Amino acid sequence: MVKLDDIKNKCINLLEEGKVKYIVGYKKNSDSYRSVPAFIEKIEEIDQLVWDPSCVYNLVRFLIDEKKRKEIQKNPDTRPVGIIVKGCDSRAINVLLQEKFIKREDVYIIGVACEKSGVIDEKKLVKKFMEKRIRKIEFGKEKNFVITTGEGKTTVPAEEILAERCIECNNNTPVVYDELCGEKIERSVSEPFKSLEKLESVSTEEKWNFWKEEFDRCIRCYACRSVCPMCYCDECVADSISLAVKPDTTAEEKAQKIRWVEKSPVSSENFNYHLVRALHLAGRCVDCGECERVCPVDIPLRYLNKKMEKEASEQFGYTAGLNPEKPALVSCFKDDDPQGFIK
Amino acid sequence: MEKKFEPKIVAILCKWCSSAGSDLAGVSRMKYPPNVVPITVMCSGSVSPNYIFSAFKNGADGVLISGCHPGDCHYIKGNYYARRRIALVKELLDFIGLEPQRFQMSWVSAAEGAKYTEIIKDFVKELEPLGPQNKLKSNL
Question: Distance (Å, rounded) from C-alpha A111 to C-alpha A73?
Answer without folding.
Answer: 29
